[in-house]
Structure formats: C-alpha cells, structure tokens
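All the exercises in this workshop are built on plain-text protein records. Instead of coordinates, the fold is spelled out as a row of discrete tokens. Once this layout is familiar, the rest of the handout is easier to follow. The record below serves as our worked example for the rest of this section.
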Amino acid sequence: MLLELNQRIQSLADPKKADLALRYFKTGEGEYGEGDVFLGIRAPDLRILSKEYRQLPIKDCFTLLKSQYHESRMLALFILVLKFKKAKGPEQDLIYKLYLKHSEYINNWDLVDCSAPHISGPYLVNRNKAVLYTLVKSPLLWDRRIAMISCFSLIRDHQFTDALKLAELLLHDKEDLMHKAVGWMLREIGNRDKAIEAAFLEQHATSMPRVMLRYAIEKFTKEERQHFLGLK
C-alpha cells in the first residue's frame, strides 16, 4: 500500500507549484525551511488522498513521515490525524508517542499546525501537561512550536493556564515563527476571555516582540491596539 501511495503522490507533482513553494516556505540557506524539497501538491489534494489511504498502517505512516518530500510528510500527518480521531486507548497512545518521537520530521510551520492541534493537543487535554514544558525548552524550533500550538486544544477547552505559562517562557524566543505562534494562541485566549488576555498583555507587552504583540491584539479595537502598542 505504501509503494502504491508513493506512486500516487508522484503522479500529482507539479514543478511550477513546487518552485513557488520553495520561495514561500523560505528554503534558502540559513532559513528555517532550508533544504526542504517540494513536489508542488496542494493541501486539499493531499487531504483527499489521506481519506483514501486512511487504512495505511501506523508504521507506514511514520515511514512516510521520514520522506524527503514536504507533501509526503504532510500527507502522513493528515492520515495520522484521521487515525487518531478514530483510535482508542493503546492505539491513540502509540500515535501520540510516535508523533512526538518523530518531531524532527514535522519540520515546517504548516506541518506543525495541521497536526499538533489534532494529535498532541487533544491527547493532553485531560492528562498531565509536563511534556509541554519539556518541549518548550527544546533547541529544536519544531518542538517548541508543537508545544505552543498544542495549546490550541487546551484553549478550546477553556484551559488557559498552561498556554499562558508557555507564552511567558517564549517571550524572548529568537524565532519569528515562535513569536507568531505565541501571538496566535494569546489571540485565541482573548477570543474566549478577553480580560485574561488583556491582563497578560498589560504585564508583558513591553517585553514581547512586536510581531507577537500584533498577532495577539489583532481582534482588539483600534483604541485597544493603540494602547498596547504604545506600551512598547
């Protein structure tokens, strides 16, 4: 099945779209996506394919996740998300553990964002959150982004404490992708409880990166945005 799937993936390749993706995902030397290889397949097409191959064995999903091709890794994650939603008990445990074990292959923002809120996030909603504090201290950017974006599931469940603690730990992260991730999660908290987000910003706006702050206050009124930007 995996061989057949790889052939299907190759049949969808579009060199023109691949060239555009190389620039969009910043794959140049020294950039966060350095060395990534693209086939030029749209995410909606990969989602369709994931439903067709949702019965791919878990071990083959993680083999596919190690592919050199960005779209193959995304497809592997789409399939794992579908599997995780249907899995129970030991199978869900296995997907979650292997997901974190293979984080080095979840190596771009779109790969994290299409999977962490649907695998690691939901898994941790009613469990101990200690792993998030290990991930957030990782030298690997993708571990840190997984930690922060996993909080989306907690935030949806109106669990804000861990997201706020992680946001505080990431205030001085050097990566722009983390600034955006933290700002996004703060904004999601504000969508549910604006007062909690505002209290966090009152305390930390002066020290947080401007990109993080701008993402966080995107849904605020013009006057509120001016207030928090004025604290910088």
Observations:
- The first helix runs from residue 2 to 11.
